[in-house]
């Protein structure tokens, strides 16, 4: 153990230098840009990882710019560790530059430093350390995806191409001690064509950028306010962004602004009934048939991530995380019935429920690693609303890098991780992989 601690210290400047480079690449989805699957910056990040693989003498494969994998070790069995290089938009309110790694008061700041570029760089260097210092009896493959935040098409591509499926593994994109289950996830688009009379009061509304982020800003304009074609009422709301899997931790600017607008109940504003519907949809007490709860997976959550209303169209994108007591089809049918005629409901992406038994080999090995390293946590193996690549593989769980009681700003502003926790994660993951390879 002392040896790996020294290796980490000796290489730490190089690790952070490469993390800084990766953070500076703005890997936000831009489908089809310059013929790439998810954007030029996402491809650039893959190319950076591949260049490092060449430098370290590690075997690699690029799967048509959807993702790449790096592999070390020998043996018939393969341990899989998927990470992702794409990030959500930066949002508002940062105290540092989001796409520039900054160190301040013992913490590293930058979009992706935790979710998930920091762990990606950790895994890149752990492969290097293992290759140079250990004799492994299994192969270890780290899969670098570029579309985790907006559909996971990259990992589906990996499976469609019949790439080797690991016997077990973990993704460093969750929480300690171990995440054994994930709710199902739906990314749904709701839209309707509109008509207005421009001489009467009507509204425009815009808010949010991604369905899986609680939006931190929304604005609305009411035209011909008080039936005066020269008067315009402008409203905006600043909320607090967070991950859509835990919407209660943020303040949704869209839904809060809608509440303010609906205080003017006496006004006849064209298309205001859309806002009334959205307000009712997010009221759990009025939608018991949707907000199902199970003992194992908890309750269904719904996030209004994007909402747009103009003279011609209403569009909204929502993120739903659901337990095993309701199905994808039931959710779609409920929404269609709720919104009624004229509204179209389209599922853009879905992710299945995932569960690994608590007494499984992978869970026991990872918990044993924490015990051996004298890392004692009160929490038990858990189920989360967040979705990870683990959902697409049997015997795969979430394992770090975060802790339940520490806020990292993932999917929000000022995303950060302490310098000491970064080093500690390198230490944990190195030893965990050794345990899995026994």
Q: Can you give a write-up of this model?
A:
Helix content is 29%, strand content 26%. The protein has nine helices and 23 strands. It starts with a helix and ends with a helix. Helix 1 packs across helix 3 (117-133) and helix 8 crosses helix 9 (419-436). The protein is elongated and about 75 Å long.
Briefly summarize what is shown.
The protein has 438 residues and is of the alpha+beta class. The chain has 9 helices and 23 strands.
Low-pLDDT windows of residues: none
Largest sheet: 7 strands, antiparallel
Q: Tell me, briefly, the overall form.
A: elongated
Secondary-structure content class: alpha+beta
Question: What's the assembly state of these chains?
Answer: single chain
How large, in whole angstroms, is the Cα Rg? 23 Å
Topology at a glance:
Layout: H1 2-23, H2 40-56, E1 59-63, E2 67-72, E3 78-84, E4 102-104, E5 107-109, H3 117-133, E6 139-145, H4 153-160, E7 168-171, E8 174-175, E9 179-182, E10 184-193, E11 202-207, E12 217-223, E13 232-238, H5 253-261, H6 272-281, E14 293-294, E15 298-299, E16 301-309, E17 313-322, H7 328-339, E18 344-351, E19 354-355, H8 361-372, E20 382-384, E21 396-398, E22 401-402, E23 416-418, H9 419-436
Parallel strand pairs: 3-6, 3-7, 7-21, 8-22, 9-20
Antiparallel strand pairs: 1-2, 2-6, 4-5, 5-23, 9-19, 10-17, 10-18, 11-12, 11-16, 12-13, 14-15, 16-17
Characteristics of this structure?
438 residues; 23 strands; elongated; 9 helices; single chain
